[in-house]
Amino acid sequence: MQTYSVKTATSLKVFMSELIDYAGLFPPAKLPLDSAIQNYAFFRESERHWMLSRFIVPAGRLAELSAQSGDLFRQATEPFRFSILGQGGIDHNADALGVSASAYHGNSC
Questions:
Q1: Nearest Cα to 23, choosing from 84, 89, 101?
Q2: Which of 85, 82, 87 is nearest to 98 (CA)?
Q3: Considering only CA atoms, which of 54, 34, 35 is closest in space to residue 44?
């Protein structure tokens, strides 16, 4: 078994800090929203939580997420962080409009 120096371990931790987004809604896991957000909440409290960054969610599922997870969000010691996927567009203004429209209409990406 190989051992690492404290310097290496610290460097690795700095490099890996908040590096991994949780995309449980998407393949290969493709979990239902309630299972995915519960998993994310669990991993946020795990020993390696420092590697975890945002929960990836399509804009069209934000209302569903809010309705299903309100208690989970209120009980959290730290705010949940999200990356929201929109429909896309030709520039950042069109992307923002796509996210707004998807969230408003409940479209899944």
A1: 84
A2: 87
A3: 54
37 exposure class (CB count in 10 Å sphere: 0-12, 13-18, 19+): buried
Q: What is the enclosing helix (H) or strand (E) of 105?
A: helix 92-105
pTM for this prediction: 0.73
Residue partners of 29: CB distance under 8 A and separation at least 6? 23, 36
Domains in the chain: boundaries:
6-105
One DSSP character per residue, 25-89 reads TSTTT---HHHHHHHHHHHHTSTTGGGEEEEEEEGGGHHHHHHHHHHHHHH-SS---EEEE----
pLDDT in tens, 33-89: 999 999 999 999 998 888 999 999 998 898 888 887 888 888 888 889 999 987 766
